[in-house]
Amino acid sequence: MKKLISIGVALALLAMVVTPVAVAAATPPDPETSAKIPFSIIQSGFYLLDEIMGPLLTEFAPDMGWIQDLMIPIGDWTGGPLGWSVDMLAWGMALGADVWALADSAFDIGFPDIANILDIMADGLTWCFVGGNCTPMP
Fold first, then answer.
1. Is a pLDDT exceeding 50 seen at residue 138?
2. How far apart are CA 62 and CA 54, in angstroms?
3. By the 8 A CB rule, do 111 and 71 touch?
């Protein structure tokens, strides 16, 4: 029983040392827009797993190295193509605003502010994370 506790304490101390070093080494590039921050966080999590899994798999499961090989591609996909879903959402909102403005004026619905709200939301999704790091929607 004492051996198990000793191993647990050793692993906890190892995690306290390895995790900050791995996080510092596994920082992805800044997201283009503020709305893509969650995708960047998930991307950095996969990068962190890549850093941590190497030593762990080598020690405990050397034949499972293929799992580590998946971490960087999944992280890159999460921060890139999956993050584009934010751009598509902003595009859809801007399109919806245009359609609503036309429908409101054509059918005299009486709620022109809905188009403005949709435009504001679309603009908010495309705000640059770092000044000049992205091109806002027209």
1. no
2. 9
3. no
- The structure tokens listed for 7 are 């191993």
pTM value?
A: 0.67
List, in sequence order, every residue forming a beta bridge with 33; answer none if it has no partner: 128
Question: Taking the domains of the chain in order of start, what are their residue ranges?
Answer: 2-79, 84-125
Q: Which two three-digit tokens encode residue 49?
A: 């797993």
Cβ-count burial 45-79 (b if 16+ within 10 Å, e if not): bbbbbbbbbeeebeeeeeeeeeebeebeebbeebb
Half-sphere exposure (Cβ direction) of 42: Cα atoms closer than 13 Å:
13
Per residue in 38-54, pLDDT (tens digit) is 999 999 999 999 999 98
